[in-house]
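ESCALATION

Customer reports they have been waiting on this structure for their group meeting. Please prioritize. Original submission:
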Amino acid sequence: MKHCLTLLLLCISFQFSAQTDEENVKNIYSNSLTNGMSYLWLDHLSNQIGGRLSGSLNAEKAVEYTKAEFEKLGLDKVWLQPVMVPRWVRGAPEFAYIETSPGMTTNVNICALGGSIATRAGGLKAKVIEVKGLEELKTLGEDKIKGKIVFFNRPMQADLISTFDAYGGCVDQRYAGAMEAAKFGAAGVIVRSMNLRLDDFPHTGSMSYGDLPNSKRIPSAAISTNDAELLSGMLALDKNINFFFSQNCKQLDDVQSYNVIGEITGSEFPNEIIVVGGHLDSWDLGDGSHDDGAGVVQSMDVLRLLKESGIKPKRTIRAVLFMNEENGLRGGNKYAEVAKSKNEKHVFALESDAGGFTPRGFSFDCSDVMFAKIESWKPLFKPYLIHYFEQGGSGADIGPLKDNNIVLAGLRPDSQRYFDHHHAANDMFEHVNKRELELGAASMTALIYLMDKYGTETISNTSKLKD
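Update from on-call: job pushed to the front of the queue and completed.
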């Protein structure tokens, strides 16, 4: 009986080793779409825990939950990596209105930007000056800005197909608007939300005062796109209207949190590490399902799908759930710092931080030679409509790992609806499609499988893919 069992195991092992890459990739997609865990994990993370702002109780709960789920998978190693993170709290709900004359007001939707100071206790009311960007402040000068609320109203460029390019083209006014306006004596800042859609959801996000002393800092808030249009239209008719807003946010002392890490140890090259990850923290207005609960659960499912598909990685596969991407990147920096101190050899890192929408492909930060090798794998993804393989770009959390010896990559889902939800109260579980999320997890697993099998060394004979 013992010899029969041994023979059976050898037959199974031979059968798996004889499978082609097409068959293994198909098996990965089948397991994800019929037996995936990413959607169930996201349900708990979003609906039982909710928004996970760094330093919050919910962030702590998310650390405990994901660590416990890693342990259930029977991984070779699970641990928490300590990291100090900033703790900014929103406080009571923000309130704002436009005043056309005494007693004549129209309420509008705003939210404090992450890192902003509060208004004074009774709120801030002042005349408004509208600008399209940071450069316009210099042309106006202190005489026209001092004592007023600067209204940054440059919209995302709608004719750019890449919504991330559109976001990058105007996010500077959110991040640096208060810092630059304060230099001209502004009393406060209101920024048009980074959103291509016209709606009533203000979108938060990080901002910075740079090296401005506390006495020079001014409150900064985002206004919904509908209300930005309203305010702009009213200013066109009357430059003397007032804007009032009140917010109670504050910056507290740093607190300890953790990156959550799970690992399958490599069978042949355990010292060569492949990382897959997303960021566990989120903003506090919604439940952070797209940004970045989706990336977290997809990364977790990569490890599970490899095990479920019977794949025994040659290299160590490590899933890292980074803390504090949104307002500090402390988790990504800490992970890279520890890896460097331990002289760890990271050969590939993949991040998912662009929402749980339908995957279109990947971007790669690598050499031309390595990209040519990666492109030879493209036919394996064609049956799953993964056609986008582009050179350039990866992910914020894995960026600190960059050196001449590592290939970095980012999952690229369809981006057209991403900024409808990004950093807003409607980034909710109900807006994530189960099938799209699972397709993303499968695509990531397939890429990790190929990177592990063939490594990051150059290959000249692409027929090896059929071996």
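Sent to customer with the following note: The longest strand covers residues 250-264.
Escalation resolved.
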